[in-house]
Structure formats: structure tokens, C-alpha cells
Amino acid sequence: MASVARVDLDGSAIKPITICMIGAGGFIGSHLCEKLMSETPHKVLALDVYNDKIKHLLEPENAHPWSDRIQFHRLNIKQDSRLEGLIKMADLTINLAAICTPADYNTRPLDTIYSNFIDALPVVKYCSENNKRLIHFSTCEVYGKTIGSYLPKDSPLRQDPAYYVLKEDESPCIFGSIEKQRWSYACAKQLIERLIYAEGAENGLEFTIVRPFNWIGPRMDFIPGIDGPSEGVPRVLACFSNNLLRREPLKLVDGGQSQRTFVYIKDAIEAVLLMIENPGRANGHIFNVGNPNNEVTVRQLGEMMTEVYVKVSGEPKLETPTIDVSSQEFYGVGYDDSDKRIPDMTIINKQLGWNPKTSLWDLLESTLTYQHRTYAEAVKKAISQASATS
Q1: pLDDT confidence of 237, banded at 50, 70, 90?
Q2: CB-side neighbour CA atoms (13 Å) of 13
Q3: I need a labelling partner for 22 at 20 to 30 A (CA). Which of 158, 306, 315, 358 fits?
Q4: Which residues form the signal peptide (predicted)?
């Protein structure tokens, strides 16, 4: 149980609050619930369609000290009349619900737009009308492409951080043309950000917007057929994990030249807890949450993951560890991508004093160790079930 002596960044005692967490059963939500239960006195109303990733927090037979501080409510926010009542019961609403898998942006653009904009509208409305604070999870995708991507390949300006480092209050949001449906997600997320900001300006909504830059760790995304649907394409790290577990070459889309940064989920959750418990410093702000020190190309990421997997699994490296595929072949017609996503960390460091700690190698080792164990357990269970029915 958390100590009563906990204080915020300004030295004031932290008072217990009730948090309505939408999407609590997902990757980020499960880690945030763990953090809140183990280290704080706060209560959580956990809303989601599934609770598989937080079952260990809910099972009464384990007699957790936090059993009376977390309640699971199985609901879909776009069709459940209980939503407003649950928001009213809480001091703070955290909205994590979204379709956020790149393959869906192209193949399910309508679902993507509805999930990330239309379905989020009632949450913003209820928070604003009932004077409830909102922490809304957006995405680094709202930045789109960098200014640097439009410079000539040999331009010395490409070395100037001003053309590719992404700043919350300065960088433009540059998307591809309308037929590039890959930007359906980013555009929907940007529009809900603008609506939240407008609610704050016109109606006094207390809000914080989070822009995650590739949060990585155990329970992230899904491995098809193991802890997620058999069909579908997860995000890049889970795609690579899936290939490694099944001993298949990693598919590098368009040569894997896009550059990304990755941050460990436990580092990122520390940042979110600071936002929760320091409203005076977080309200009205948009925060990049990433690790600019963990920047690699997708190709380099694949190579590093292959090395880490050899270490954690004891299995030999494949003779052909990677293959190149086109984005059209992998994602379908209409796919487009950003070149680099490097977060500027000035605002979050100034307001909350937060900096990420975990290296890329260490976060990959933690993630792949978890996934290798989960995969081995799933295979063992499938073999056992097959033997029992044969």
C-alpha cells in the first residue's frame, strides 16, 4: 500500500482520487493500472471490452491489498449509456481507447476515423459538461512527415534538428494526400486534439494530451494467434517479434529506412503518473513522451531484435534474417509513412522533470524475454490440448 506521506512535485500532499480509465484492459492501461494499484492510494474504474491483461489485478482469490480500489466495467464506449455516469463518479478520466494499428489505417479507414474521433466525442463532452479533468492519449503520428523529408536528399539542412525534431508547440502537422488513407488515424487524432484544446479555451475543460512515441514492453500490441487475433498485422515491434518466435525472416517495409525512437513502457508510465498527480503542472499541456536517445532505423531495429532474441531464446540466427517488401504489398494500396519521429523533450522535462532511462537494448531484452516465455507457454498448452482430444 502506498505511503500517506507521498507528495507532488511542489511538495503538497497527494490526495487519493478516483480515476475513470477507458481502455484499461490494453497494453498501456494494464501497466498504468499496475502502477496505480501498487504505488498509490487512488481508485480506478477500469472500462474496457476485454480484461485479459489486467485479470491478475482483479482476481479476488489473490486477496490483493488493492481489491477495493479497482472495479472492472465491461463496456464499449460508443454504445453504452453507463459511460457518463462512470465519468461523473470519477475525479479524472483517462481515455486510452483507440484503433491504433497501422495496417488498419489503410484497410479500415472508416473504423479508424470513427474510433479515434467520433467515439471520443462523448468522453470529451461528458468531462467538459461535468467539470471533470481529462487526460487524453493521442499519438506522435499527429506530426505526420517532417519538414526535412521535403528537402533534397543531399541538402546539408537535413542535419539541422530544426527540420526533424518534433515540438508540441511549434512543429506543423504534415500529412499525405487524401488518397493516402494511412493518414486517417493521424488526422482523426489531430482533430480530437483540436476539439479538446477548444473545449479548454472556450469552456474551461482541464485537460492534458499525451503523444506517445512508440511505447514498448511486455503485453504490447499482440502476437497473432497467441495473445491476439489470428488475422491482422500488429505494429512493427510485434510484427518482428512474431517473425522471430515463428522463426521466419523479418519483413522490412520499403527497406526499413524509416527512423523511429522507442521508450520503455515502465519509463513512460512514470511520466503519466506525474501528469495524474501534478494537475497544476500538467493541465493545458500537450506532452511528447518518448526517448530520443533510442533512435534507430527500422532495419537497425530488426537487426538488434534478432541479436537480442538469440540471447534470450538460445536459438540460432536464421540464415536469411530479413527480407525486403514493398509497403503496397505489406499494407495495401494507399499506404504512406513518415521519415523520422524524434521527440523534443523540453516541455515535459520543464513541467514534470521527467526523462526516460531505459536503453533500447534493455527494453528489447525485457520485451522479447516476456514474449518468448508467453509463446512457449501457448505452444505447450496447444500441444497438451491436442493430445487430450486425440
Answers
A1: confident
A2: 7
A3: 358
A4: none
List all residues 6 or more positions away from 185 whose beta carbon is below 8 Å from its beta carbon. Answer: 99, 100, 102, 104, 105, 112, 116, 139, 141
Work out the number of other CB atoms within 10 angstroms of the CB of residue 146: 22
For residue 356, give the nearest of 272, 278, 297 by alpha carbon.
272
Q: How many angstroms separate the CA atoms of 215 and 238, rounded?
A: 12
CA dist 152 and 174 (Å) reads 17
Average pLDDT in the 104-129 region?
93
Cα atoms in the Cβ-side hemisphere of radius 13 Å centred on 388: 6
C-alpha cell of residue 238: 510485434
Residue in 105, 185, 331, 375 annotated catalytic: 185
User: pLDDT tens, 183-234?
Assistant: 999 999 999 999 999 999 999 999 999 999 999 999 886 555 555 544 445 5
Rounded Cα distance, 244 and 313, in Å: 10
- 175 within 8 A of 368, measured Cβ to Cβ: no
- Dig out the grid coordinates for 16 from the structure: 487519493
Distances (CA, A) of 97 to 155, 219, 224: 40, 16, 20
- C-alpha to C-alpha distance for 92 and 132, rounded to whole angstroms: 6
Q: How many CB atoms lie within 10 A of CB 156?
A: 8
Strands 259-261 and 295-297, bridge-based pairing: antiparallel
Beta bridge partners of 46: 21, 72
Please state at what angle helix 298-313 crosses helix 236-245, rounded to 10 degrees.
40
> Cell 489473490, residue?
62
